[in-house]
Structures are given as C-alpha cells and as structure tokens.
Write a structure and sequence with these properties.
This protein is mainly α. The chain has helices at about 5-25, 30, 40-60, 75-90, 105-125, 145-165, and strands at about 75, 135, 140-145. A three-stranded antiparallel beta sheet has the order 1-3-2. The longest helix is centred in the N-terminal third of the chain and has 22 residues, at about 5-25.
Length: about 170
C-alpha cells in the first residue's frame, strides 16, 4: 500500500472506532434519537457510513482498480463541491440508497461498517500510488486512492461534527 494512503487509512480507522465508541457510550435513548426531522440518529449515522463505504467497495468489485491502471484521476467540480460542503459540515442531502432503512441496531451497524472498511482496505492495500485511480463514480469522476481518502475523511468530519454539535 502506498505509505501516505496507509497512514491516512490508519487515522480514518481510529476515527471509525472512536465514533462507534462515542455512540456506544450514549444512553440507549440518545443513540436512536434524531436531533431534527430528516437527520439521522447517532446509530443511523453508523449504519449510513457503513452503507456509503460498502457502495464504494461494491463499485470496486464491479470494476477493479486494476481496470484503471494507467488512467489519470479526474475528479470534477461536483466532487470538490461535496468535499467542501462536508468539510464545512453544512447540511447536505443524502443520495438515494444511502439512508438506513427500518430499525437499526448499533452492534449490527458497527459490524457492517467494520466489514466494509476491511473490504476497502483489501482494495487499497494493493495500490502502489496515492494517485492511482481506484474507481469511477458518475457524479464525481475518476477517483484516485487519495481522492477516495479525502472523500471518506470529509464524510467522517461531517458526521463527527454534526454528532457532537461542534
């Protein structure tokens, strides 16, 4: 794995563990309480993050990073707009299919997120360069490993900030 991506991944993994533990330390009624209509409860945030990362993994399963060997990354304006919005933690719409459905159990959500993160690692550990394209995602363009990490870091920041209110 590219050493820069490895370090960023390790930091992202520490943040995943800390966020799950933060939600786990809340009283059960707070874990499932939404702060406003249209927002996620803390446990739904964990499930949402698992869903989003699993969708990324699923894209890489359909078209492997090896399929993009020699291609140049080309993220677009929309990618930059979304990353900036997530980093500002301003209210962002949730794309279809990325919202938790039904009753969400914290242990199941945490395991699902751990699993999708592990699968993501399996793809990224084979990447030799942070600039290597790892997936093409219609709204954002051809994303390098570094671009994907930036998106995941911004997404984590968004939910960490909104969950703590800071």
């Amino acid at each position: 794995m590219d050493p820069i991506i490895a370090e960023r991944f390790q930091q992202l993994e520490a943040r995943r563990i800390a966020l799950v533990e933060q939600v786990r330390s809340m009283p059960p009624e707070k874990q499932s309480q939404r702060s406003s209509s249209g927002s996620f409860s803390p446990v739904e945030v964990i499930q949402h993050l698992a869903i989003v990362e699993q969708m990324s993994v699923d894209r890489m399963r359909k078209k492997s990073p090896d399929d993009f060997r020699g291609k140049n990354p080309s993220h677009n304006f929309f990618y930059r707009y979304v990353v900036a919005g997530l980093n500002k933690a301003k209210k962002m719409p949730v794309p279809p299919g990325m919202s938790p459905q039904g009753t969400v159990d914290l242990d199941q959500a945490a395991r699902a997120w751990e699993s999708s993160r592990s699968d993501l690692y399996g793809f990224l550990e084979k990447i030799e360069s942070a600039g290597a394209v790892v997936q093409k995602y219609f709204p954002f363009g051809a994303l390098s490993a570094a671009d994907l990490m930036t998106m995941n870091e911004a997404h984590m920041h968004y939910h960490e900030t909104r969950l703590t209110g800071s």
